[in-house]
Each structure stands twice: as structure tokens, then as C-alpha cells.
Amino acid sequence: MSMQQFYALGQLIEEGERISNTVDTVSFDLFDTLLIRRIHNPDMVKPAVARYICHKINKRAAKEGTRKKWTWEQVQKLRDTFEQEQRQQTGQRFDDFEACYPDYMGQLVTAIFGEQEDKSLLREITDYELAVENSVLVPRHDLVEWLKRLKGQGKKILVVSDVYLPAAHLERMIEHAGFLDQVDAVISSADSFLAKASGKAFPMLQEQFGLNYERWLHVGDNPVSDGGRPAERGIQSLVLRDGLEKMRKSLAKRYYNYALGQPFYRGRCLQQLMLPLEAENIPQHPLYVKGFNVFAPILAGFIQGVAEHCLHAGIRRIYFFSREGWLFEQLWNRMIPKMYAGREDLPETSYFYVSRMALAPASCGHAGLDQEHADIVFLPSGNKDFRDVCRVFGLEADAFSDILTSHELRQDTVLSPLHEGFLPRNRLCFNEMLQDEFFQDEVRKQTLPAQQALHRYMEEQGFFQESDVALVDIGWLGTIQRFLYRSIEHREDAPRCHGLLFGATRGIPYPTTPANSITGIIYDRDRFDLAASTVLYNRDLFEEACRAPHSTLNGYRLTEEGYELVFRHEDDAIGQAEKEQDRFFAPLQEGIMAGAEQYAASAAILGYAVRDVKPWLNYLLVSRMAFPKAKEIKEICQRHHLDDFHGQHKATKVAAAKELWKCSLVKLRWRPFLRIEFFLRLIKDHLHS
Amino acid sequence: MKKQYVTGKNYDLGEGEIGRVISLILRDKFIPMGNLNGGSRLKGLLVLFLSHAFGRHIFPRIIPWEHKLHRLYLLINRNK
Predict the structure, then answer these.
(1) φ and ψ of A407, to 5 deg
(2) Quick check: A531 contacting B, CB < 8 Å?
(3) Helices of type H across A116-261
(4) Where residue A651 falls among pLDDT bands split at 50, 70, 90?
(5) Chain A: nearest CA to B28, how far in angstroms?
(6) Topology adopted by domain A3-34+140-241
(7) Nearest Cβ partner for B35 among A529, A623, A679
(8) Using CA atoms, how far apart are residues A451 and A454, in angstroms rounded to an integer?
(9) Residue of B41, B47, B61 with shortest CB distance to A262
(10) What's the alpha-carbon Rg for chain A, to the nearest Å?
């Protein structure tokens, strides 16, 4: 018998189907045949395992007060040494220089953790290694389908592999790939040290399963092990040398090698490993594709940044602020256990219901309303007079009639300079009124129940049990955290609040203290980062992309039993519009979540931190936010955006800011320098600020 | 809306990401685009562009001579 080589999978399966009547047994090679790897080099999973072991031993050393600290490179080197030693020893007794994972890893665990170490640690490490392997393995759809057809025809199906993992481990991989029930036996050279490479595996299989060489077909990817060796025994063999697989691996290798010398490519290399392959890569909604390829790396980078910050600062509790925090928490749950496997110092997470409208009243329950916070109301152009102040801070305007009169003000006196009829004198009167004790007493009286309800909610959430908490939100001014901290700062058990924002635009200075600070992970105005500042092109887009599919919180209501969260009704026109927007962005969120999972698996393998991928994230932001295609803007631009904090008044003295994302499609298509114009304007604004 | 693939036929992100990278890197030569950490060398970009654009046609054609080409590649590298 001779071997046949094929350069495309379809041709191999066609020939296999043709000769399948002449065989009773079909054996398949496993790696690069039935299962392909996203990575170009199988050894790339080993550093991830070395990091896992390194973390475990260093944690133990810290507990025991031992001085020696391991690096993952040392662990990796030791593993390689033990593996090589075993291969040399095997080579003296057998034709193949094979190794067996449990043997040399057992040696490694004993050498690192000490003689007394039991089997459970090796099992834990093995589980992690197999989980990492599974994250990079993808079944070849067409080949697995053919395998199933062969099984259906009553053929004996064997999976044979030359690898250091024993058959029991390979079975777990095949089970994860979803076709273990179609396989009669899995055979690994690690169990017998008889490999396909020398051809010794085939007589062993023939004897073990009582096979007839002439009615046996072997399929694999190696011309020697899977082609020449079985052919020498009279076994029909089909060898697949797939040109497209070669291309895919060549690209992955090129990106990886470029990333070693040019940091710009690190994020791109990570994204190359994230890509869905084979049956995973099915036609998807265009927003799903945007979510996977653009938003997922950016948001996953943000979540990784949050994790790095918390681990570095020793923060043990994270609160994800509604509503954008809903997606952030989902991403955290999908990513962080994979990226920081085995770490016990990961913070606990909670989803925390907040909104500016709900927190504004609670912030006045103890401290009253000061000028700094009243001024925030007049930042959006839609707010105009005292009624807007009352709407934002949950006050009853009529109760202030006498106080307003005594300060020569009315409820409808214009207090915003952006509106017609504004007199600076009125604003001075308003500021004087804020100093009035009667005014402050009335404010406190009206807002105290909201604050008490908030405190009960926070106590239930364990907010006051930690000394440091991370508050994660999308951005931008940190108003939510500002209101939240103001409502608790008088309490002795108030924790230090570390605000971790996707983008910190700091339009108004944040009152930073050691106990209360904000940091922008992807963009922070306090760090000069021109590329990242392109998030400012369309902030609403990020908000909508991350928003939870539930209505916004309107307030905290004090009840006899404790508190009640009051949500906005969804049955009015705005509520319906929001629901429509949620439905519109549902595929985008699906893509983000799927992409983030792959990001975590790839980042764990490559060992990249956020700083490694940041240049690529900057590229994604600039190319998608500042230089988008007209078609992209049309596809992704959000339909509705609700913001209760902004009032309904139309400002007369403010010119609508020119925004690229609000330009007409005709302009976007036919003005070649439009994007450059806006980008130069961004540079100018940055230099001025 | 017409459905799309996350992985393009040329193993790029969606469709034509490499083209966007090239255009941004070239733009970066004239206007600062921000921190791209040195960006990319043009030779590397060109190789990637050719690999993505023509790899689908080239790789299946050269794979029968993979071993001979590999030897040639090693020889060239040794003489460098």
C-alpha cells in the first residue's frame, strides 16, 4: 500500500469516502488533523502553565515566609529539563524519544513544592493545562462530520497521537470538542512509548484491537508518521497537507514574531488568536462582527486594566455601576477566572444599582446642597432654572417659594448662561440662597429619606465592610461617584473609593482625595493620550453598547422594611425607544461577550498585560472613531439615547458642537478631508487644554 | 443587513483590516495619530498585506514543494 497526499481537505474526504468500503477500521491523527490549534506553536501553552505554577508557589512561599521567589521562566526551564531527561531515558529503551506528562510534571511538582506534595496539586495543574489546551483547540468540522459518517457505517474509529499527554487527557480534549462518543478508542504514545514516528504504534494497535492491516485506513497530517510508516505495514494512508491551514499558521507566526520586536503588533497578535475558526466562523449580524473585532478588545482591555489595578492596590471588592456595569460584570465573569486562574486574591464583584438622578438627592441628605454640586446641574444645556435643580436633586419646588422670594428669585428665573434671559445677578442671588440655613434645612429634610434608603441598600451590599472598594463605571466626569461619596463621607466606616472609569474626561475638576479618586483606564484627561481621546468622538456609542437591558434607576425609597429601588417606567415613549435601542444593540453585545472570552484565553497564553495591547487599542480607537467609514457610521450609530439628567429646554446661546458622527452620509462619503479636519481640531483642543 | 464573517477568508479581522492599518500608519507619517508605540515598519506591513491578499492562492500552490522551499529558506538565512 502507498500513501496518498492531499492539499485540500475536500479532496481527502472525497477519496476517503471512495475507499471507505474497503476498510473496517479508520484511525485518525488528533492534532492538526481532527483538532487544529489557534496558535502556530503547541509549546505556547506551556508558559501559561508555568505562570500558574509560579503564582501558586510564590503565594505559598509568602505564606510560609520563605525568601525564594520563583519566576515563570525558571519553572518553564525546569519543566523542559525534566521532559528532556525523560525523553532521553525513553530513547534508551524504545525507538521513540517519548515523554509522559504525569511522570515529568510529577517530578516538577515535587522539585518545586517539596517531597510531601500530594497528587491533588498535580491534578490541579493538569486541569489548568487541559483547560488552556481546550481554549486553543478547534475541531475540523468537515473531518469530524466524516468521522461521524464512518462511525455510522459501523467502522471502528481510533484516534492515535504522538504526544506527551496520556490517552485519558486526550479523551478530555476530544470530549470538549464534542465527538468522544463517536470514537472507539484513544491511543497516545505517552502511555506505551510506542509512537507512529517509528511505526511501532501500528503493530501494537493491530495486536491490541485484532486489526487487519489490509482493511485499515489511517488519516493524518505528517507524511512520515501518518503516511510512510503505516504504508510500510500495508495500511492505506491519506495525508492532509492543507495549504490554507499553512497560511493561517504562517500569519499567526508572523504576527507573533512581529509582536516580539514591535509592541504595536501585540494586540493584533492577540486578536489573531481570538479569531473563530472552522464551524465557529459562521455568518453573523454586522454588529456582532463589530462587537467581536472592535469593541471586545477595547472593553476587555478595560476589564483587564481594572483587574490589574485592583490586584496591584490590594482592593478586594468591586462594584459595577448600573447600567453600563452590567456588561462590565458579564465580561469580568467570563474573562478574569481564565486570565488569573488559581489566584485567590481576586476581588469579589457586585452589580450596584445607581444613577445620577437617584444619587443626587441622597448626596444632600447630610451635607445639603452646595454651590459646586448645584453648578453641575447647569452643565448640560437642557437645564435652565430652579425647577431643573429640584428635578435633579429630587426636591419639591413649591416648598422653597418663600425662600426664593426672599432672595428675589422665582422658580422660573433663568439661572443658566446658555439661555435667553440670563442675568449674572440672578445667579449670584441663587448662590447666596445656597448659603441660607433655612434653604439647607429644607433640602436636608426633603432628601434625608433617600440617603437613608441608599445607606440601607449599601449596607445590604456589604459596602462598608471593606476598607477599599473599586467603583467601576463607563465615565466620564465621575458625577455618580461624586454624589455617592458625598452621601457617605460623613460615616466613619466609609471605605476608600477608587473609581475606575473606561474614560475620565474630567470636564469639571474631580475633588480627588486619598479617600476618593477616579482613574481612567482607557482614556484619562490627566494623561496626554491623543489616540485614546478619540473616545470623545461618540461617548454615547460606548454607553449604549454597554448598557444593561433594564430601565434606569430613578431613586432609593425608604420603606418600613428597609428600602426599595425605584426604576423608571418603560411604558412611555422614551422607555419604548430605549427598548428599541437595546434590541438594536443586542447583536453587538453578543459579539462583545464572545470576543471577550477569546481575548481572555489569548491573553492568558501570550501573557500580555494592558500596557502591551494599549498601542493596538489606540489604533482601533483612532481608526474606528476618528476615521470611520461612512457605511460603519450608518450601521452602528445609535438610534435613541436617554439622559434624564439633561433637561428638556432648548439652549439659545450655544451653537451645536460639530461632530463627525453627526455629519450627513453625503458629507462623510464625498468630503475626503473631513475626518482629517476633525482630527486636527481634536489635536488643537488637546494642545489648548 | 447582510451577514458577515468575523474571520475573513484571508484570515484577517473581518474584511480588509490590514488595509486600514496601512492607511493609518501612512497617515501617522504626516499627522501624529497618537501613541501607537512606534507603529509598524513598512516592510512588515507590506509582507502582511501580501500574505493576507494573495496567501489564499499562493499557499495551496507551494505546499507540495514545502520541504524544498524550507531548505532553500534555511540556505538563504544561513548566507545572510
Answers:
(1) -105, 20
(2) yes
(3) 119-136, 141-152, 167-177, 189-192, 201-209, 229-232, 243-261
(4) low
(5) 11
(6) Rossmann fold (3.40.50)
(7) A529
(8) 5
(9) B41
(10) 31
Of the pLDDT bands very low, low, confident and very high (cuts 50, 70, 90), residue A642 is: low
CB contact under 8 A, A8 and B60: yes
CA dihedral defined by A71, A76, A81, A87, rounded to 10 degrees?
170
Tell the residue number behind the cell numbers 429630587, with chain if given.
A394
Closest B-chain CA to A278:
B7
The CA distance from A3 to A235, in Å, is: 9
Asked if omega into A326 is within 30° of 0 (cis), the reply is no
Centre a 10 Å sphere on the Cβ of residue A131 and count the other Cβ atoms it contains.
Answer: 19
Are the C-beta atoms of residues A142 and A36 closer than 8 Å to each other?
no
Contact A622 B60 (CB under 8 A): no
Residue B12 in grid coordinates: 484577517
- The Cα A535–Cα A621 span in angstroms is 7
Residue A293 has its nearest CB partner, among B6, B31, B47, at B6
Of A74-88, A397-411, A548-562, give the range with the top mean pLDDT: A74-88
Angle (CA) A48 A53 A57, round 5°: 150
- Model ipTM value: 0.94
pTM of the full structure: 0.92
Question: Coil, strand or helix: which one is A276?
Answer: coil
Q: What is the mean pLDDT of chain B?
A: 89
Residue matched to cell numbers 496518498: A4
Q: How far is CA A535 from CA A298, A302, A473, A474, A662, in A?
A: 11, 13, 15, 11, 15
**Residues whose CB is less than 8 angstroms from the CB of residue B31 and which lie 6 or more positions away in sequence, other chains included:** A676, A679, A680, A683
Q: Do A618 and B35 touch (CB under 8 A)?
A: yes
Domains of chain A by residue range: 3-34+140-241, 42-133, 284-352+461-689
Cβ distance of A272 and B11 shorter than 8 Å: yes
What are the helix and strand counts (H, E) for chain A? 28, 15
Mean pLDDT of chain A, nearest integer: 91
Three-class secondary structure assignment of A94-154: CCCCCCCHHHHHHHHHHHHHCCCCCHHHHHHHHHHHHHHHHHHEEECHHHHHHHHHHHHCC
* Digit-coded pLDDT (tens) for A320-336: 999 899 999 999 999 99
Q: Pull the grid cell for residue A121.
A: 496539586
Please identify among residues 566-595 of chain A the ones whose CB lies closer than 8 Å to any CB of chain B: 591
Chain B nearest-CA distance from A244, in A, is 6
Q: Do B38 and A263 make contact, defined as CB atoms within 8 angstroms?
A: yes
